[in-house]
User: Fold this.
Amino acid sequence: MTSRERTLNVISHKEVDQLPYNLRLVPELMEMIQEKIGTIDYAEYFHHDIRYVSLKLPEKPDELDKAQWVPSPSEEAIAEIARETQEMHSRGLAVCGTYFMGVYEQAKDWLGDEETMIAPYESPSKFSDMLERITTWKCALYGAYVTAGVDIVWIGDDLGTQRSLVMSPEMYRKWYRPHHINIVNNLRAIRPDIRIAFHCCGHVTPLIRDLIEIGIDVLEAVQPECMDIAILKREYGKDITFWGGVGAQSVLSLKTQKEVIDRVQETLEIMSFGSGYIAAPCHTLTEEVSWENIIAFHEGVRCFNQLYKQGREDA
Assistant:
């Protein structure tokens, strides 16, 4: 089974030969790893199943305010990521578009955190118009990845803190869910078989059913520091795929190599039942994570997959 087949099967909750896996690194940590492994790409070195293509957008002219800058992807930029996607597909790899901030995140970028939270009450009509403008832009950006042929388009919004949602479920459903529905419908109109991953850091349990209802295939991040992953898998695992779940803060940045290997295997044991799981840390790894623990993460996945294969063969 190729990495692409494995990943698409997992998202469809079908049987696989082993769990697909990957991780992401901040640039500083990537530089450190490249010093260890040489010129080979780290995803190639660790045999990751999912790779990324990144849509290049023109830089914002200095004279424009950032809220005036909503660049559409050029045909040349789309053609370039289409070529990259085809090359990765020829090697049996699954391809995901890189992340662009979501509707709520973009509103915060333009207005600031406080204004974004009070605008629905103080200037609802103006705020609604702005969200419509953002959504139209995001449809074009995410849609470019779908047109280019990626397997997974990666949308989202950071709606959670370490303890709770950043807003009430009712506020999400009134102000943001309709825009997420619009984005999903637009992407599926371009290509009905596109898999849609939704990124959200923090505690998002109260909104998982909403995400399932609007057509999200994959919830990405899945922070065990903020949510009980066993409950998530039991309550929602039949209806959505989870991507992440290995603690970046609580495990990879703090534990010993032996503890990391053990905790990775424990996480995969919980999340792998019934398929619907992509093994990964719950966030982009930062400089707090050592080279040794990056190795340990992959060793934990390798050990689990070895047992996973053996279990399937014995069955």
